[in-house]
Write a structure and sequence with these properties.
There is one protein chain. The chain is α/β, with parallel strands linked by helices. The chain folds into two domains: 9-20 and 124-245, HAD superfamily/HAD-like (Rossmann fold); 22-119, Up-down Bundle (Four Helix Bundle (Hemerythrin (Met), subunit A)), CATH 1.20.120.1600. Helices cover 45% and strands 11% of the residues. It is built from nine helices and six strands. Helix 3 packs across helix 4 (82-97) and helix 4 (82-97) crosses helix 5 (101-119). The N and C termini lie close together (8 Å).
């Protein structure tokens, strides 16, 4: 009979795994753009340069999104660095609006400061704080995100001695490099690590290819059988029960 494998480490996706991210992004996107539009108009009026059309009137949010897509296509290595894409796109739009290079850079930077302030106003699921506290007593923990939340800016950051910002590495998931970086820093092997995430493409597939087990947060009811090593959960709160069940034989035994 084969010996059981004891998990050493857990890696976590953040957005839509530890909190619901949709409304946060809606409020962040609209909020920082409205702030830029309003404060830029005040600044222009104070300088005696009242605009004929406000910034957001000339460049609505769709224009901002289109410019980010253009940048991502032009700079494929930066396609996952969402902070860079946003700031560069804002700078381009502000220059098209008539600001000189220095003012455009300054306002783009200020708008991104506002964006990041709003972006970090996330509300973790009620169970997450106690869950991570408990898990941290038994496993090494790391976060791996494609988003631009800096977990170190949140109270939850204390649970993650290893935090991988995949976009800033220029290797967004499903690239295996952020997973490999997390495993190296944790000092854990793929076979003894479980990844927790909500995306089949960005979490499940790359982790599985590396030989990790996966807790797939997918609340949609689906009876399709899953490959070995992939465990579907409705919510991250179910993770402890899954971990208790994962004392089993090696794959292939």
């Amino acid at each position: 009979m084969c010996a059981a494998i004891r998990l050493q480490a857990l890696t976590f996706d953040l957005d839509d795994t530890l909190w619901d991210n949709h409304q946060v992004m809606v409020e962040t996107e609209t909020g920082h753009y409205a702030w830029l539009d309003e404060t830029l108009e005040v600044w222009q009026r104070n300088r005696g340069r009242a605009p004929v059309r406000r910034f957001a009137e000339r460049f609505p949010l769709k224009a901002f999104l289109d410019r980010r897509r253009e940048l991502a296509a032009a700079y494929p290595l930066r396609r996952g660095d969402f902070t860079w894409l946003r700031e560069q796109a804002l700078q381009w739009l502000l220059q098209d609006y008539g600001l000189d290079g220095d003012d455009a850079r300054s306002w783009a930077s200020a708008a991104m400061d506002r964006f990041m302030l709003l972006r970090h106003q996330v509300t973790p699921h009620p169970e997450v704080e106690s869950l991570l506290s408990m898990l941290g007593q038994h496993y090494r923990l790391a976060s791996i995100t494609n988003g631009n939340v800096d977990i170190r800016r949140l109270p939850l950051g204390r649970h993650f001695p290893v935090a991988i910002a995949a976009g800033e590495l220029l290797a967004p998931k499903p690239d295996p490099r952020p997973f490999l970086a997390a495993l190296a820093r944790l000092g854990a092997s793929p076979a003894r690590t479980l990844h927790v995430g909500d995306s089949w493409r960005e979490d499940v597939e790359p982790a599985r290819r590396l030989g990790m087990q996966v807790a797939w947060i997918s609340p949609h009811i689906d009876d399709t059988p899953l490959p070995a090593g992939i465990h579907r959960l409705d919510h991250v709160r179910e993770l402890p029960e899954l971990l208790r069940s994962l004392v089993g034989p090696r794959q292939g035994c």
